[in-house]
User: Fold this.
Amino acid sequence: MLDNDLIRLDQKLNVFIEMKEEQQIEELQDIRHDKQKK
Assistant:
């Protein structure tokens, strides 16, 4: 029971981290695009 809860928590955390990373990557790309325009 406890193991399953830990696994679920771990999976949620991984998904959250992936989302944050993707968001940061997109923001970085946006910044690059802005610099290229100027």
